[in-house]
Amino acid sequence: MMAKKPRLLVAVALANKMARAIWAMLTRNEDYRAPAQFVPA
């Protein structure tokens, strides 16, 4: 992603992603769950 986009844009996108995850956990009163791992068939 860093090779194609400006560094600041990537940083803002990642911060937004983390903020949305944190907001969802706080509003649902849940603990962090690691994303499911993709296992090819």
Give a topology summary.
Layout: H1 7-28
Question: How would you describe this protein?
Answer:
This protein has 41 residues and is mostly helical. The chain has one helix and no strands. The longest helix is centred in the middle third of the chain and has 22 residues. The chain is flat, with a radius of gyration of 14 Å.
Précis, in short:
The chain is mostly helical.
List keywords for this structure.
mainly alpha, 0% strand, flat
**SSE succession:** H
The tally of strands reads 0
Low-pLDDT residue intervals, each spanning 5 or more residues: none
Please give the alpha-carbon distance between the first and last residues: 27 Å
Mean pLDDT: 87
Work out the helicity level: 40-55%
Q: Strand share of the residues?
A: under 5%
Describe the sheet with the most strands: none
Based on CA atoms alone, the radius of gyration comes out at 14 Å
Shape: flat
